[in-house]
């Protein structure tokens, strides 16, 4: 993996180069092994939190980890195109629009002891903007090459805090074209429901149950690229213990190995549908 500026990353995408890179501010990673018609993303995988923010932050490292999506990049990293965030969503949230991306409160608790200084907020917002510059260049290149793109937008959520039964997998679809892509959502739901877990987790996959797909990442791509489908895919944190801050690597590996099969199958089905 090479360290590259945002401008160099975008240039490589425009030239259709294959590469593995981390941005020179260490805010994102991008791997492109080939310019296939599908992208995997893990925008909340990151846990980095700038040291200059530590003393002013009221949330502990565990509280931040609890609301992040640990191991979601590991579940998809074998695929040809993978983009991931490196920073904690408590610095800036890539799934919120710029005006809401730097929190003042987070999950009902004040985030900062003192209001965040404007230069520190600007530094975070620049990384947010740069991420979307890269995403825009990437999706544009794939649509130019294939006339379409499908994005597997991977997230996780804390299932133990719900006071009702919740699904292992949730697909959020409220901001996509369901008339055009609804049957593809259903086929993805069925594929997810067939994934087996080594810890005998009862497997369910629902649509718009715990979350409805209101994230900025999905909205940004959907609004700017008319032939790109974003599948906002949330897994309950059954691959770890959200209260003990433990990840079960054997469960993560099992998920990753099965997604090696199911993601390309879904991408192929999507391409056949678009090509008609």
Structure description:
It is a single chain. The chain is α/β, with parallel strands linked by helices and 276 residues long. It has a single domain (2-275), classed as 3-Layer(aba) Sandwich (Aminopeptidase). The protein is built from eight helices and 13 strands. The protein has helices at 6-14, 51-54, 61-67, 72-76, 118-146, 178-193, 216-224, 249-275; strands spanning 2-4, 19-23, 28-32, 38-42, 81-85, 105-106, 109-110, 149-157, 169-172, 205-207, 228-236, 240-241, 246-247. A nine-stranded mixed β-sheet has the order 1-2-3-5-4-8-11-9-10, with helices on both faces. Strand 2 (19-23) and strand 3 (28-32) form a beta hairpin. Helix 1 (6-14) runs parallel beside helix 5 (118-146) and helix 6 runs antiparallel to helix 8 (249-275).
Structural key phrases:
two-stranded antiparallel sheet; 276 residues; single chain; nine-stranded mixed beta sheet; hydrolase activity; N-FG_amidohydro; 8 helices; N-formylglutamate amidohydrolase; hydrolase; Aminopeptidase
At a glance:
The chain has helices spanning 6-14, 51-54, 61-67, 72-76, 118-146, 178-193, 216-224, 249-275, and strands at residues 2-4, 19-23, 28-32, 38-42, 81-85, 105-106, 109-110, 149-157, 169-172, 205-207, 228-236, 240-241, 246-247.
């Amino acid at each position: 993996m090479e360290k590259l500026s945002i401008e160099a990353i975008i240039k490589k995408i425009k030239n259709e180069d294959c590469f593995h890179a981390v941005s020179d501010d260490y805010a994102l990673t991008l791997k492109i092994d080939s310019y296939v018609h599908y992208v995997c993303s893990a925008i909340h995988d990151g846990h980095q939190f700038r040291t200059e923010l530590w003393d002013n932050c009221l949330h502990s490292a565990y509280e931040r980890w609890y609301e992040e999506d640990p191991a979601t990049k590991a579940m998809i990293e074998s695929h040809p195109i993978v983009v991931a965030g490196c920073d904690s969503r408590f610095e800036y949230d890539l799934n919120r629009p710029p005006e809401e991306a730097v929190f003042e409160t987070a999950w009902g608790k004040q985030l900062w002891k003192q209001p965040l200084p404007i230069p520190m907020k600007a530094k975070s917002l620049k990384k947010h903007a740069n991420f979307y510059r890269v995403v825009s260049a990437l999706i544009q290149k794939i649509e130019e090459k294939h006339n379409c793109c499908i994005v597997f937008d991977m997230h996780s959520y804390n299932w133990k805090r719900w006071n009702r039964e919740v699904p292992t997998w949730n697909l959020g679809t409220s901001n996509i074209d369901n008339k055009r892509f609804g049957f593809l959502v259903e086929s993805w739901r069925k594929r997810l429901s067939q994934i087996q877990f080594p810890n005998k987790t009862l497997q369910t996959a629902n649509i718009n149950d715990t979350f409805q797909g209101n994230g900025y990442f999905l909205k940004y791509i959907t609004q700017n690229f008319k032939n790109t489908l974003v599948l906002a895919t949330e897994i309950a944190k059954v691959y770890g213990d959200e209260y003990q801050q433990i990840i079960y690597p054997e469960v993560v590996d099992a998920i990753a190995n099965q997604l090696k099969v199911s993601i390309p199958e879904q991408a192929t089905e999507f391409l056949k549908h678009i090509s008609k």
